[in-house]
Amino acid sequence: MSPPPAACARCDRTGVKFATTWPEGRICRRCYQRATRIHGTCPACSQPRLLPGLIDAEPTCTDCAGIPKDFHCTRCGREDEPVRTGLCAHCCLADDLALLLDDGTGSIAAPLRPLFAALTTQKHARSARAWLTVNRHAEQLLRDIAQRRAPLAHETFRDHPVPQKVAFLRELCLEHGLLGRVNLDIERFQDWLESKAEALPAADARLIRQYARWVHLNRMRHLERRGELKKGTFLAAKQSTTMAIGFLNHLVTRGTMPRDCSQADVDDWLATGPTTRSIARTFVRWAVEHGHIPSVEFPYRTAQTTPVIGQQQRLDHIRALTDPTAPITAADRTIALFLLLYAQPLTRISRMTLDQVEAIEDTILVSFSGDRLEIPPPFDGVVRAHLDALPNANTSSHRGQAWLFPGAQPGQHMHQTSIMDRLRELGIDLLGARNAALRALVLEMPAPVVAGAFDYSYTVTDRHRRDAGATFTDYVTHR
Length: 479
Ligand SMILES: [Zn+2]
Ligand SMILES: [Zn+2]
Ligand SMILES: [Zn+2]
What we know:
Elements: E1 18-22, E2 25-28, H1 29-35, E3 39-41, E4 48-50, E5 53-55, E6 58-60, H2 62-65, H3 89-100, H4 113-121, H5 125-134, H6 136-146, H7 154-158, H8 167-175, H9 184-198, H10 202-225, H11 231-253, H12 263-271, H13 281-289, H14 311-321, H15 330-342, H16 346-350, E7 357-360, E8 363-367, E9 372-374, H17 379-389, H18 392-395, H19 416-425, H20 430-444, H21 447-454, H22 458-478
Antiparallel strand pairs: 1-2, 3-4, 5-6, 7-8, 8-9
Helix pairs in contact: 3-4, 3-5, 9-10, 9-11, 10-11, 11-13, 14-15, 15-17, 15-20, 20-22, 21-22
The structure holds zinc ion (3 copies).
One zinc ion binds near residues 47, 61 and 64.
């Protein structure tokens, strides 16, 4: 009978390689490694020790477990698993690093000393060693820097053939002050910019680099100094630069050099593509300001295109409504007037009540919000005619509940879709007309006043003011 195969005293596995034999029996390599990494207070003697032993399933120190081995490092006295004979991981790491970071004279290269100090005093010497021995690129680079074959500078890491392999080493150097502070996100943007610029004709590349540096990188650095640099800044900068490149490509396809860029080139750029093209505005304005392209206007555009009829067309409509011979009912005339003069949407007009209109002597007042507005002649006549034509039943007692535009059904107001149909028959583009009216209003009075009096949000009136201001007045007068 052959003896039973030897099993590990701790894990009971057979067919394993054994590391040692302790009082409890043979210990496999895996159990040995695990045991020699446990530090803590020994439950038997209450000393802070390495705890490789085992008593009643509890890790204990070598003395209490009767393990005949001294784990104290022969150099530093630390009780730990020896990496090389008699030497702990810390001492081995220090030896390895001293060799690696040697400047050739037998001492550690001066610029790398803070890194040496940081690595050798950290708690996890074992993992630092593992990282260095596994990562040949980092090891080689450290050697090159120590022996001055490579400068200790950001470029060394950036220009490394496998930058990601030395990225962690770079972060360590940054952390311990071996490299000047740099924002890695800004650097990534620079890399991105370079890759984009390289694909462009030389003159365009120069322009794009200048633009990105002066406008975006400066801003990024400024924000970084204030601790306000966000991820969104990079996205916006990339989008802006991409659109700038798109605009330059647009000029190329039109056979135009930037210095010959005309208003038609800008207008065509905006008219023939998606609304995101308006993002090129920052670039075009910068280029104009710095004399790279002639003075052209780059009008604002809203996110969605806003249909607007021309102001002349709007005035023609208004004139038609005051023509007494036109075949339009007094109600429809009034409704159209509220749309064309006061930019009121039909949903709101159709629900207006009688008390929103007041006739005081010769004056007709209307209120769409809290403000009462005087309707100027000749338009007051149109409204008066409508009031006169209203059936008596409607005007009697309960003015507050009486509709200004009563529908065919008793108690109902006119339905907005039927109004819509009739106004369309008159050739009025309803949304375009309302926007045109709003623009006319905001050109006549401040946007907040328009917002208040005509019951629009300030965002809407301000947007129209900008649109009206930039595309309608400024744009026209500048040309
Ligand atoms: Zn075992
Ligand atoms: Zn003990
Ligand atoms: Zn040691």
